[in-house]
Amino acid sequence: MGSQEKPVGNKRYIIETSLMAIVGLPILMQVAVFTIVQLSLSELLASALASLITLPIGYLWAKKNNLPSSFFARYLPVLIPLIYCLLLWSLAMFIGKGDFTHSVFEYFMLLIFPFLGTSLIAIFTGQLWITILMPLIGYLCFALGLAIGTKKLGKNMSVTRGRLPVLGLCSALLILTACQGYQRETHLVTENSALTVNETISLWDYAPFKKEGSRLTALSSPATINIDNEWPRVDGATAAYPIYASAVQALYQGLDYNSVDPYIASRRTPEAYKALIAGKTDLIFAAQPSEQQKKLAAENGLTLTMVPLAQEAFVFIANKDNPVKNLSVEQIRAIYAGQINNWQEVGGENWDIIGYQRPEGSGSQTTMLAKVMQETKMRQPLESEVAAGMGGLIRRVANYQNTTNALGYSFRYYASQMNHNDQLQLLSVNGIAPTPENIRNGSYPFSVNVYMITAGQPTPNTQKLMDWFLSPQGQKLVEDVGYVPVRPTK
């Protein structure tokens, strides 16, 4: 008779504990986290404390119930959701490459439906990893509470049947946490505004027809052409803006500060190419297009025509206190391929090299891939987390942080004049400095062109403007702004 009642008791325990794990614990933890958040604690701390309340619940659950003698009957109701969460986290890490903020966590929250409320908190705060981590900690603490309760009741199991499986799950959780923590430590940086060298700056000082405080370059002689109607819409890279904004101010007649906006913009390279291909602008000034930008033009039945306007140097920047003043092309390539990781390997101090990159499609990144890396694959870029409104945090390629062990790249004019920083140095490459003379004679290894780019047939006034830029007066303006002209100015 007794042998028949025991399975029934096990079945009832399994059903009740399963309901507790799937319904009761999520509700308790979410009520707790919403309550704790009201105490102005961080979402991380609130989630951790809310998860820990399952430990005493597990202890009381063990004392209240007639525990099965079988390990699997006793722990299976809580181990199944725990293992389920571990598998989800492992899969999320694999898909998101260890990125806590990857959108995969948003999708996975639907697979942990009882924790949907907590998942929404995670999305609104940007702490997407809470979606999976909180259930993991909660179920693990509940299982530990059960184990402690059974020990107090004198119903311990053998090490093999009881503790080892729990220790295995704990180890798996710690390994996942360590792997993801390592990924954040090595690939995620915190941006400091005092150290940041952005490739986006205010162009207020370069606005055409501004009456006071303008940094635009005036023509050295009366304009040889004027455009007084059907003004070409121009756009381009930030670093090229002083060139074409100076030309707009000198050549566009009949416009003023309030009416010029529809005809000039600086969307930066990726967006400028998109605007050109979409027909929103007539002419852009930028570095050569990326393969993706060429493909986008072709998909729209357009061919990008590039006319060199100026010569420029693609430069590598470091902190002025870094004793390394020169790198070879091979060393730069090896650094950004992940083969050289310490400044000591290139003649510097024993510091890790923090190599910053630029976003895909930007002029700097396109030039880096085409001119420097060529067929060599670049390492994964450093990233930072930035707020994105109610969408929480998003990852982006980190801006250059001018610490003593940092390395970055840009264009000479932008880094040395437009966004000058006394704490930066421009490195020589193969022993050759990026000076105007070395750009002009072609000895600097990474001399590049700034292009005027059209998509399809240019309008008559667009062609007129392009021809002027290649005239002696236009090339003199290029030189006066601070670039190296492509044609003689005298």
Helix and strand arrangement:
Blueprint: H1 2-37, H2 43-52, H3 54-64, H4 71-96, H5 104-108, H6 116-125, H7 130-152, H8 159-187, E1 196-197, E2 234-236, H9 241-251, H10 269-277, E3 283-286, H11 291-299, E4 304-319, E5 326-327, H12 329-336, E6 354-355, H13 363-373, E7 383-387, E8 393-397, E9 400-401, E10 406-411, H14 412-418, E11 424-426, E12 428-429, H15 436-440, E13 447-455, H16 460-469, H17 472-481, E14 484-485
Parallel strand pairs: 2-3, 5-12, 6-10
Antiparallel strand pairs: 1-9, 3-13, 4-10, 4-11, 4-13, 4-14, 7-8
Helix pairs in contact: 1-2, 1-4, 2-7, 3-7, 4-7, 4-8, 6-7, 7-8, 9-17
Describe this protein's structure.
The chain has helices at residues 2-37, 43-52, 54-64, 71-96, 104-108, 116-125, 130-152, 159-187, 241-251, 269-277, 291-299, 329-336, 363-373, 412-418, 436-440, 460-469, 472-481; strands at 196-197, 234-236, 283-286, 304-319, 326-327, 354-355, 383-387, 393-397, 400-401, 406-411, 424-426, 428-429, 447-455, 484-485. α4 packs parallel to α8 and α9 (241-251) crosses α17 (472-481). With 490 residues, it is α+β, with helices and mostly antiparallel strands. The relative contact order is 0.11. It is built from 17 helices and 14 strands. The protein starts with a helix and ends in a 5-residue tail after the last strand. Strands 2, 3, 4, 6, 10, 11, 13 and 14 form an 8-stranded mixed β-sheet that branches. A two-stranded antiparallel ribbon has the order 1-9. It is elongated and about 100 Å long. The protein is 47% helix and 13% strand. β7 (383-387) and β8 (393-397) form a beta hairpin.
